[in-house]
Amino acid sequence: MNCAGIKKLFSPYLDGRVSGSEMRALTRHMQQCAACSQACAAMQRTQQLLASLGPKQAPADLALKLRVVGSPHFSKPSSPQAFLQAITPNRGRNRCGRRRPRFGR
Ligand SMILES: [Zn+2]
Description:
mainly alpha, 2 domains, 0% strand, binds zinc ion
């Protein structure tokens, strides 16, 4: 199997979803090909780092905000950015949408 064919097996390999013959082909190829061996190790490190982050907790009021945004009384956001702005807290702004005064400058 060539490098392109082996690279397609990286993800199934890291998920433990390769067959016996695929595993043998992978092992044989990576013993001879430093580039694929390094690429697979890098992919494995990335997967481990992502797994170590753990699940991120959704904000407590996200379900309510999504119901409001999805209700027929709410006008459709014009863009994905407008949608995100509608469901994320106003950073640096008070409840009226005005900028918070900055003290101690
Ligand atoms: Zn290779």
